[in-house]
């Protein structure tokens, strides 16, 4: 095989010695040269890819851009151009900015949900700690059903036993339930 034939087999868009024009040259109705700058990035079997890029940016602007970008970075540049062109075709006013702002909104919502979940975990831990403190206090300080007073294992309750009982039954100054239910329109975050 000759050197030219081997080159044609390596070139994108070639088949059996016949060179097909790339999608760019086909759309622009011109002959696709051996050194066509568009051929490696806009193959003939993906014509819509270049059609959108051409419609949004123009072939001459894309040609200038590709010549200014180093060869190793051209595939990334073309990928970005195709994404932006497709987004602009779908949404002519906002283009890819609409997708970016939508993703940013989703991130903000997820951050808020994460903060609420963390607050709910704190509330549950505090509730559990209060329950453990109350149950351990109930074991040491018992209510006498005959007199209605408290008694411990000894005949009279000590001041520290009474203080523990008051702490275990005291209402918190700030209710996490109120914060969470307010954030969810009065509905609890999770049902038990």
TrEMBL record:
What's this protein's family per the entry?
Belongs to the LOB domain-containing protein family.
Q: Which InterPro entries match?
A: LOB (IPR004883)
> Superkingdom, according to UniProt?
Eukaryota
PROSITE patterns given in the database record: LOB
LOB domain residues: 20-121
- Report what the protein is called: LOB domain-containing protein
- Species, as recorded: Dendrobium nobile (Orchid)
| One Pfam family, short name | LOB
């Amino acid at each position: 095989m000759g050197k030219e034939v081997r080159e044609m087999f390596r070139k994108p868009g070639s088949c059996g010695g016949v060179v097909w024009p790339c999608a760019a040259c086909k759309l622009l109705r011109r002959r696709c040269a051996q050194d066509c700058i568009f051929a490696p990035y806009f193959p003939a079997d993906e014509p819509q890819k270049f059609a959108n890029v051409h419609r949004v940016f123009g072939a001459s602007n894309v040609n200038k851009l590709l010549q200014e970008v180093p060869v190793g970075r051209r595939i990334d540049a073309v990928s970005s151009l195709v994404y932006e062109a497709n987004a602009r075709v779908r949404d002519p006013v906002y283009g890819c900015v609409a997708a970016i702002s939508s993703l940013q909104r989703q991130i903000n919502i997820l951050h808020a949900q994460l903060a609420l979940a963390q607050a709910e975990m704190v509330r549950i831990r505090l509730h559990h700690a209060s329950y453990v403190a109350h149950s351990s206090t109930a074991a040491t300080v018992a209510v006498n059903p005959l007199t209605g007073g408290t008694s411990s294992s000894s005949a009279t309750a000590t001041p520290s036993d009474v203080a523990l009982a008051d702490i275990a039954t005291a209402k918190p100054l700030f209710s996490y339930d109120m914060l969470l239910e307010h954030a969810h329109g009065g509905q609890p975050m999770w049902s038990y």
